[in-house]
Amino acid sequence: MFGEIQDRDRDDAHWIEVREVRSSHRERWSIRAAQWRGLELAREIFGDSVVLRSEGFPPRGGFQGLVHLTVPFDSLEAHRTREARFAGLVGADELLARVPLVFVFEPQDVNTPVGRLS
Asked: What is the CATH number of the domain that holds 50?
């Protein structure tokens, strides 16, 4: 976070802050906060068994991350209704508006018990 400045650039200061490092840390934490907010909204709509899996997706263009949500799946009609409610909540959320993520839904395996991630 700090770098030594060259002798010719010194004006009574021996260290300067390297802002690029701080901004990348801040960006990473804002993406994590948005992922957790997405998980919170998904659990509100789909139930407590929702599991979040985040991919190592570097920010590209307007998107800041790729998030897989494993959700219970009863029927296609029920899933689409819940998915539409989730999309509405995501669209209205202040944090998720600042950090746009791509959400990918996948069905839970009905035979595999799922625990909470928090």
From this structure: 3.30.70
